[in-house]
């Protein structure tokens, strides 16, 4: 078997590619209506489609990985992402762009699967540090990918972004096929197709309502029908899952206090992270004349955001070592505290570019520790045969947090805006309220984290493999 450090590096690379998919379109998002000759409401689906696909596929991919081999499903997800990238690169119009972006969203499932692979193949003493590194890629890929996307957009045709994504996916496929060992731990049984369909329909309904509520109207028939309909489907789905022998997700395991509270904290942590992704770039890029921005170019602004990703990567070995000595609960508490400090700092100091830089460094500390803690907490509380599905469910809760943040912060920025040169731009009040919301989410994560049990649940013994 290849050296364990090489396996970790390959899985970390796939995580970077996964998070890069969500910053891929940021440089041209505001220009999409012009580029695709479509309305702004229609072009919003270029982003929404990826989000929906990621949320639906991640827990399903986790279960498939537990049953049929985690490496095999990682390879399938990479191929789906490559196919989506090629489709988008050749797309003549918005419909095929949306199809390609939907397929690109599949790759998000490689992160929880990669974390589960680490538990299967690494020596127990190395698992926590490796998990911290893989978890950091959720933020690092976005922070480092933003300036890359900006540079490509400024120097080349925007379709080239999709060719870059395809190339990254092909390289990831080759590396995983070559380096990552075949999964030997499998869960017997048949795949729950009814449960997968029910989960997909319910999630799509709720996430559609959350992500499109701003444009549809929060009390419109479309929002209420999709949101309430999705909730009803999920309630029926949960009833069904508790009554079959081989469910898609074992909800009894998911209801364990440590798992449930970790997932709730994940929603708050996801909200807090995405709020910063929405607020800080806009503050940096808005013209100075608006009274709420610093007038930086997209490329310059991306270099102010980028240090948060570097901090996450640097802190990953620290997080792993700290988790081994004190347990992952402390990591979550430190992470939530750092996020709260970042938002509190920005509420007091936001008049200079370097203030935003410091806030983003604190965001990096918060997400670096917080995201590292979650899969560790989950895997200390579930059987080894459930790690893929349980980590997938945890990733789903993080996605739910980011979806809610996108909708809520987007609504705040739209509600408190003024006309500037014929365009509605957020006011300083809008940014202040958004920062308060991000800080409030960090408080929720902190309080919930304090109540997470620290006792390791009984589970199958970890396979102790030689270094």
From TrEMBL:
Pfam families: MFS_1
PANTHER family found in the cross-reference section: MAJOR FACILITATOR SUPERFAMILY MULTIDRUG TRANSPORTER MFSC
Gene Ontology CC: plasma membrane
Keyword terms, alphabetized: Membrane, Transmembrane, Transmembrane helix, Transport
GO molecular-function term, one example from the UniProt record: transmembrane transporter activity
UniProt organism field: Microbacterium rhizomatis
CDD domains noted in UniProt: MFS_MMR_MDR_like
Subcellular location(s) per record: Cell membrane
Transmembrane segments: 7-28, 43-61, 73-99, 129-152, 158-179, 191-210, 222-240, 260-280, 292-318, 330-350, 356-374, 430-452
Chief location category: membrane
Annotated protein name in UniProt: MFS transporter
Residues annotated as domain Major facilitator superfamily (MFS) profile: 7-456
């Amino acid at each position: 078997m290849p050296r364990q450090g090489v396996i970790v590096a390959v899985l970390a690379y796939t995580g970077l590619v996964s998070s890069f998919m969500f910053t891929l379109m940021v440089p041209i998002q505001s220009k999409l209506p012009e580029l695709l000759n479509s309305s702004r409401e229609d072009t919003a689906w270029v982003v929404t489609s990826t989000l929906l696909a990621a949320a639906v596929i991640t827990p399903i991919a986790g279960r498939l990985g537990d049953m049929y081999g985690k490496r095999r499903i990682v390879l399938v997800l990479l191929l789906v992402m490559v196919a989506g990238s090629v489709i988008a690169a050749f797309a003549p119009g918005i419909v095929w762009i949306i199809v390609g972006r939907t397929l690109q969203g599949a790759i998000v499932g490689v992160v929880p699967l990669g974390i589960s692979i680490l538990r299967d193949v690494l020596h127990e003493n190395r698992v926590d540090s490796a998990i911290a590194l893989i978890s950091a890629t959720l933020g690092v890929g976005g922070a480092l990918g933003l300036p890359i996307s900006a540079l490509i957009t400024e120097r080349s045709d925007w379709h080239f972004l999709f060719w870059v994504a395809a190339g990254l996916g092909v390289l990831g496929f080759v590396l995983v096929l070559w380096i990552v060992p075949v999964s030997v731990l499998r869960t017997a049984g048949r795949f729950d197709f009814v449960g997968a369909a029910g989960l997909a329909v319910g999630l799509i309904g709720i996430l559609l309502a959350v992500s499109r509520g701003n444009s549809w109207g929060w009390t419109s028939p479309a929002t209420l029908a999709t949101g309430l309909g999705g909730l009803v489907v999920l309630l029926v789905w949960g009833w069904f899952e508790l009554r079959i022998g081989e469910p898609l997700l074992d909800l009894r395991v998911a209801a364990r206090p440590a798992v449930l509270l970790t997932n709730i904290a994940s929603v708050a942590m996801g909200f807090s992270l995405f709020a910063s992704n929405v607020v800080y770039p806009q503050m940096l890029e808005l013209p100075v004349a608006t009274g709420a921005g610093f007038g930086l170019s997209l490329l310059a602004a991306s270099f102010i955001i980028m240090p948060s990703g570097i901090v996450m990567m640097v802190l990953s070995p620290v997080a792993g070592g700290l988790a081994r000595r004190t347990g992952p609960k402390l990591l979550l508490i430190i992470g939530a505290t750092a996020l709260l400090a970042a938002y509190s700092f920005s509420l007091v100091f936001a008049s200079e570019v370097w203030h935003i830089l410091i806030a983003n460094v604190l965001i990096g500390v918060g997400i670096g520790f917080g995201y590292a803690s979650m899969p560790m907490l989950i895997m200390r509380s579930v059987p080894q045969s459930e790690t893929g599905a349980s980590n997938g469910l945890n990733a789903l809760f993080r996605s739910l947090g980011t979806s809610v943040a996108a909708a809520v912060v987007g609504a705040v920025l739209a509600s408190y805006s003024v006309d500037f040169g014929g365009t509605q731009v957020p006011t300083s009040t809008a940014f202040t309220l958004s920062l308060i919301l991000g800080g409030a989410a960090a408080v929720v994560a902190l309080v919930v984290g304090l109540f997470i049990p620290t006792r390791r649940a009984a589970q199958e013994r970890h396979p102790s493999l030689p270094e």
